[in-house]
Specification:
127 residues, mainly beta, five-stranded antiparallel beta sheet, 50% strand
Length: 127
């Protein structure tokens, strides 16, 4: 069970973007951009109620309300769309726990992109 989501992106200009999402606070996500070659970081808190987003160098991060359902966090570049939604499950003791559900969708450019999602989740995308 995944209890939180952390996504790291490297932009084409070499900056790193870190995204943090916790289903216990599903209406907010945190984005930090580290500029290449500096110790400068730019941070933002995304809020689902205002459909806030972060965009840098063709990388988009958006947190939006789905009209009554739980908010959705989308992380997208030109080749991949990663969608993270909060969920819940109940233990045998009756305690309700939170989780994140992750979906990864290839966009048309993914077929020619030399970089693909990897790690435990990315390994499930093999043809």
């Amino acid at each position: 069970v995944m209890s939180e989501a952390y996504v790291t992106l490297r932009t084409s200009n070499g900056n790193l973007v870190f995204i943090e999402y916790n289903p216990s606070t599903p209406s907010s996500a945190y984005v930090t951009e580290m500029r290449k070659g500096t110790s400068t970081a730019e941070m933002a808190q995304l809020n689902a109620a205002s459909a806030s987003h972060w965009e840098v160098d063709h990388q988009r991060v958006k947190l939006f309300d789905t009209g009554g359902k739980e908010p959705v966090l989308c992380v997208e570049d030109s080749a991949w769309n990663i969608t993270i939604t909060p969920g819940s499950y109940r233990l045998v003791t009756g305690i309700l726990k939170r989780r994140v559900d992750v979906s990864i969708f290839p966009l048309p450019a993914a077929a020619t992109n030399p970089v693909a999602p990897h790690g435990i989740i990315g390994q499930s995308l093999h043809d």
